[in-house]
Specification:
Order of helices and strands: HEEEEHEEEEHEEEEEEEEE
Radius of gyration: 20 Å
Shape: elongated
Distance between the termini: 52 Å
Number of strands: 17
Largest sheet: 7 strands, antiparallel
Structural class: alpha+beta
Length: about 220
């Protein structure tokens, strides 16, 4: 079995959410943060023949990089990772399920109160603004028909702020949803975003079968 670049990118991204992962048999990979406020799921082009528990995902990715074109052969308790010639091999042991943090069930997204498209350029601009201004929150606000994404310090009304007005659908609702940038660990790309006043958001990648569910901060407000 070989892991495509797409599958490796998903694993690298998921390692920023949680350093360990339990990959169930099949082609769906899921992860959840230790704080259980970020859940992600991806359907990849690799078919895992069995459940695979990895305690240190960054280490596993590093091990794959030790050989060219890594090829995996799975045994009950470990995988043999060989190069294209079969001369270089690594024996990598799996971790037991009880040592790992993984999603116990899927999330059923409540009815969305706000929907919009977040393109990759806007996402990058928000992240650059956060780095420049030293802020750690994104405000998603709607009022008088205008939807704005702002990089702010929500508890300081006089702090510098960067904002972008975008198109979206939210009816006549008035809201200020706060999202921690630390939780916005998503792969580059364009996303369909839906947000519920139940303080949960869903980011669905437009090109990949990839979804993130990210909890909003409790300081968020919403009025119909």
């Amino acid at each position: 079995m070989e892991l495509s670049e797409n599958t490796l990118q998903v694993l690298k991204n998921f390692s920023t959410i949680n350093q360990n992962v339990l990959i169930r048999q099949g082609n769906t990979i899921k992860t959840i943060s230790e704080a259980r406020n970020v859940l992600a799921t991806a359907v990849v082009d690799a078919e895992f023949p069995q459940d695979v528990g990895i305690y240190d995902l960054n280490e596993f990715i590093g091990v794959l990089g030790l050989v060219d074109t890594p090829r995996l052969k799975f045994e009950d308790e470990y995988a043999t990772i060989a190069d294209s010639t079969g001369r270089s091999k690594i024996k990598y042991f799996f971790s037991p399920e009880e040592t790992l943090t993984f999603p116990q069930k899927d999330i059923t997204m409540p009815k969305a109160d706000v929907t919009f498209t977040l393109d990759n350029d806007t996402l990058n601009r928000l992240k650059r603004a956060a780095s420049t201004l030293g802020h750690d929150e994104v405000s998603i606000s709607g009022k008088d028909g205008v939807l704005s994404l702002s990089v702010v310090e929500s508890q300081n009304s006089t702090s510098n702020a960067f904002s972008i007005d975008i198109d979206g659908d939210f009816g006549e609702s008035v809201f200020n949803f706060i999202l921690s940038i630390a939780n916005l660990k998503i792969l580059p790309g364009d996303y369909d975003v839906s947000i519920s006043s139940k303080l949960i958001s869903n980011f669905s990648h437009k090109e990949l079968d990839l979804n993130y569910w990210i909890a909003l901060e409790k300081t968020s407000t919403f009025t119909k």
